[in-house]
Amino acid sequence: MEAVHSSKTELRKLVNSAIVPLSLVIFLWAIKFFELFFHLELFMFGLFPLKSEGLLGILTSGFIHGDWEHLLANSLPLIILGTGLFYFYKDIAFEILLISYLTCNLWVWLFARQSWHIGASGLIYSLAAFLFFSGILKKIPNLMAVSLLVVFLYGSIIWGVLPLKEGISWESHLMGLISGTLLAFYYKGFGTQRNLPEWMYEDDDDEGNNFVSNDTEYLEEKNNP
Fold first, then answer.
1. With bands split at pLDDT 50, 70 and 90, how would you rate the model's confidence at 120?
2. 3-class DSSP state for residue 117?
3. Domain spanning 2-223 has what CATH number?
């Protein structure tokens, strides 16, 4: 009975974790429908490096996609990686999401080639890098398994950081990868044990858990069972 209750709790957490990423993807699709319905060209809301007219793109470029194929390719990774972010790192998920997005786009504006850059792929690369390296840095075996799953699902994206295909913003991919990696190192001591589901610790002892908990309530419960 307890196992059933625990499973239902984790399922509820998983569903709740998907709300923000799924809402974001729905919003992206709504923008594309709006663009096509009114016969608009929203590329001017993209990002153009080192040009004043491209500065707005630091905020808006991730919401604009070239066609349905481009949008579809970004939708599923955003849902999966975004859900993973909110499931495992609830307390800092919004910070990671916002910093990843803005940092990646700012770097693209500063360093990328002179062309319009649009799409959410930079954010996807940042989330993938963050989840992968965070799992390794925290040295929690089950969380490391999640990192390996990220590699299995999206390992091929590493080729996206190279200028191998015309028309692809490999700079966004590269900046996203760097951003996510740096965030994983910066936040390696952040977050609370409570944010991670119990099954993450089932094979760990206290010495193997190098989380720095900032949850006072959790620490009191642990010290006074």
1. very high
2. strand
3. 1.20.1540.10
